[in-house]
């Protein structure tokens, strides 16, 4: 009897151990270990780009017609499953009203339409590549859109000296992950073309983790008590631009929006 | 004025030849073995690209250099004297934007141009004269700066400034750079309009001729201790002293001490000049960080200039109508 009991307990223990081991294995996935830079850090150098429709709307959305009639299907909005964990952004009621107003007037209000700096995290999933250049002291993120640049201070970290569009980023390595803590934002950038927005209380913590030689996991935790009732998280993969000649090209869009922004103030030939 | 005089007494900071400064200097290495140019640098200088007409020698004595710098600093301060027209923009000295308050990249040179020997740009080709005449016509056609955004200078439009080049030139203020080196790349960030030059070092060819950019397309390589950057594929819309889309720039950066990078560049543009020409300056170590220069996003000046002009026109038209109806 006792022996049988022992066997049962042992079997149960072994089963439990195996279950725990399997769970641990899953918890640790992806177990990918990135190649290292000469100073021993995960090597995230490269040109990266998101492939999704978060640029249109970070929440789940159906395909929709183009906001600009003349662009027809070429400018229509592809559907998207959303990149926000839990699906829906936890807006405060008055903030949700403002988001809806933004959305209704997006051609007039979206900073992207005016070629303004994109802010964070929006810069990461616009339909443009960005390049990571890593040194032990600084990690640079250089975006093709509007030449937006972020300097991530790895060693000489300070508080944000002033509010800015791209914020003030301090970084650290957490095992395989580059963790970037960004504050000091102004309240002028958006999350997407659908009017999702933040205030100057925005605090973004991002994790960049290699998941294979040519893909990264990107996660951003967003905290902004003026706009949201609780912190929320978005995540998506980023893909390496593997073309051997891939490079960040100029998208100096100021010139492209001058007639839009200042055209009504042009001297009329008759005057 | 005291703050202008302060740095001028540091005669030792002038250098006759930066190369002679520390012949035994061992350039530090990045973790992947590149000569290390990283850090924050300034190329703010009062040295003009071309030698002034009355100057006939290549180098000033230190005493002459101090006098020249002092005079230039005084002129720069005067330009934004309160109550003057220039001061409507803002007072450079008040906001610490004048060069005398920057980390000056001093040299005893009387001009940045070292070739031709007379320190002047070489003669312009016949084709070049036609191009310059056509540009002058186009400027005239666009009208005054109050007529349209496009009639304004590129810096007032927040499109591009003098800093990123290439060649990289003093930008009148905030002539600051941040160099970061990652595996296979050198990145040079210019403070003014956050322009980042990303220079690949892997020997890849230039892209097709149809790819044209404001800053051109740069390719780099290490020649011993010297970073050599060759740039072509310019769009020609930001002429450097008259250059066209056929401009080719070769830059050579070599760290000659902990706080100095020797910067040489050669300009070739067969459409504009009869022969290539070369210049030499220095980049001096400065303190970081660079701040976000969101120029376009805060460009109220351009909007208000145009709005003011249209309101003036409206007022004048109303006054004329009133006079006519009397």
Describe the structure.
The complex is a heterodimer of chains A (271) and B (326). Chain A has 4 helices and 9 strands. By secondary structure, chain A is of the alpha+beta class. Chain B has a domain at 25-44 and 114-300. By secondary structure, chain B is of the alpha+beta class. Classes of the chains: A alpha+beta (271), B alpha+beta (326). At the A-B interface, strand 2, strand 3, strand 4 and helix 4 of A face strand 3, strand 4, strand 5 and helix 5 of B.
Greatest chain-chain contact: A-B, 48 and 54 residues
**Major sheet strand order of chain A:** 1-2-3-4-5-6-7-8-9
Number of helices of chain B: 5
Shape of chain A: globular
Secondary structure tally, helices of chain A? 4
Report how far apart the termini of chain B are: 57 Å
- Determine the structural class of chain A based on helices, strands and strand pairing: alpha+beta
Radius of gyration of chain B: 22 Å
Q: Spans of chain B with pLDDT under 50 lasting ≥5 residues?
A: 1-12, 16-20
Secondary structure class of chain B reads alpha+beta
**Helix and strand string of chain A, N-terminal first?**
HEHHEEEEEEEEH
- How much helix, percentage-wise, in residues of chain A? 10-25%
The sequence of SSEs of chain B as H and E is HHEHEHEEEEEEEEH
Q: How many beta-strand runs of chain A?
A: 9
Terminal CA distance of chain A reads 108 Å
- Whole-number count of domains of chain A: 1
Protein traits:
heterodimer, A: 271 residues, alpha+beta, nine-stranded mixed barrel, 9 strands, 19% helix, globular, B: 326 residues, 5 helices, 21% helix
Task: Give a topology summary.
The complex is a heterodimer of chains A (271) and B (326).
Chain A: H1 2-28, E1 46-49, H2 93-104, H3 106-109, E2 130-134, E3 138-143, E4 149-153, E5 168-174, E6 177-183, E7 203-212, E8 215-223, E9 232-240, H4 254-262
Parallel strand pairs in A: 4-5
Antiparallel strand pairs in A: 1-2, 1-9, 2-3, 3-4, 5-6, 6-7, 7-8, 8-9
Chain B: H1 2-5, H2 18-21, E1 39-42, H3 62-79, E2 113-115, H4 126-142, E3 176-182, E4 185-190, E5 195-200, E6 217-223, E7 226-232, E8 248-257, E9 260-268, E10 277-285, H5 300-325
Antiparallel strand pairs in B: 1-3, 1-10, 2-10, 3-4, 4-5, 6-7, 7-8, 8-9, 9-10
């Amino acid at each position: 009897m006792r022996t049988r009991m022992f066997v049962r307990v042992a079997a149960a223990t072994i089963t439990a151990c195996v279950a725990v081991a399997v769970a641990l294995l899953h918890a640790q996935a992806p177990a990918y270990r990135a190649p290292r830079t000469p100073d021993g850090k995960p090597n995230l150098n490269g040109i990266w780009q998101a492939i999704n429709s978060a640029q249109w709307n970070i929440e789940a959305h159906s395909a929709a017609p183009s906001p600009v009639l003349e662009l027809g299907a070429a400018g229509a909005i592809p559907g998207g499953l959303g990149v926000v964990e839990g699906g829906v952004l936890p807006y405060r009621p008055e903030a949700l009203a403002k988001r809806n107003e933004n959305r209704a007037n997006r051609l007039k209000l979206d900073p992207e339409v005016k070629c303004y700096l994109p802010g964070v995290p929006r810069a990461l999933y616009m339909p443009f590549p960005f390049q990571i250049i890593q040194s032990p002291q600084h990690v640079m993120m250089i975006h093709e859109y509007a030449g937006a640049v972020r300097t991530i201070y790895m060693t000489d970290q300070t508080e944000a000296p002033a509010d800015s569009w791209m914020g003030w980023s301090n970084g650290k390595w957490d095992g395989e992950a580059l963790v970037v803590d960004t504050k000091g934002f102004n309240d002028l950038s958006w999350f997407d073309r659908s009017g999702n927005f933040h205030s100057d209380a925005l605090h973004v913590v991002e994790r960049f983790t290699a998941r294979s030689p040519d893909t990264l996991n990107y996660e951003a935790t967003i905290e902004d008590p003026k706009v949201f009732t609780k912190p929320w998280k978005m995540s998506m993969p980023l893909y390496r631009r593997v073309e051997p000649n891939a490079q960040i090209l100029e998208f100096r869009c100021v010139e492209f929006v001058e007639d839009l922004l200042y055209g009504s103030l042009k001297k009329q030939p008759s005057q | 004025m005291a703050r202008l005089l302060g740095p001028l007494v540091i005669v030792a900071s002038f250098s006759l030849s930066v190369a002679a400064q520390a012949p035994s200097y061992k350039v530090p290495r990045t973790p992947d073995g590149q000569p290390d140019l990283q850090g924050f640098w300034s190329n703010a200088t009062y040295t003009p690209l071309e030698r002034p007409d009355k100057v006939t020698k290549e180098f000033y004595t230190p005493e002459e250099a101090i006098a020249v710098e002092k005079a230039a600093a005084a002129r720069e301060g005067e330009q934004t004297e309160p109550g003057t027209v220039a001061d409507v923009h803002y007072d450079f000295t008040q906001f610490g934007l004048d060069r005398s308050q920057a980390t000056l990249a001093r040299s005893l040179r009387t001009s940045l141009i070292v070739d031709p020997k007379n320190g002047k740009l070489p003669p312009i080709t016949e084709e070049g004269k036609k191009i310059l005449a056509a540009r002058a016509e186009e400027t005239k056609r666009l009208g005054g700066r109050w007529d349209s955004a496009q009639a304004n200078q590129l810096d007032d439009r927040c499109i591009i400034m003098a800093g990123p080049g290439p060649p990289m030139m003093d930008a009148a203020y905030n002539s600051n750079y941040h160099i970061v080196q990652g595996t296979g790349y050198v990145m040079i960030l210019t403070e003014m309009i956050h322009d980042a030059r990303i220079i690949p070092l892997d020997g890849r060819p230039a892209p097709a001729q149809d790819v044209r950019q404001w800053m051109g397309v740069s390719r780099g390589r290490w020649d011993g201790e010297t970073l050599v950057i060759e740039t072509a594929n310019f769009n020609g819309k930001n002429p450097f002293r008259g250059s066209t889309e056929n401009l080719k720039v070769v830059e050579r950066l070599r760290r000659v001490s902990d706080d100095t990078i020797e910067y040489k560049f050669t300009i070739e543009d067969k459409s504009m000049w009869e022969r290539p020409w070369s210049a030499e300056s220095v980049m001096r170590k400065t303190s970081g960080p660079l701040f976000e220069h969101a120029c376009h996003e805060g460009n109220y000046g351009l909007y208000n200039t145009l709005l003011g002009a249209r309101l003036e026109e409206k007022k004048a038209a109303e006054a004329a109508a009133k006079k006519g109806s009397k």
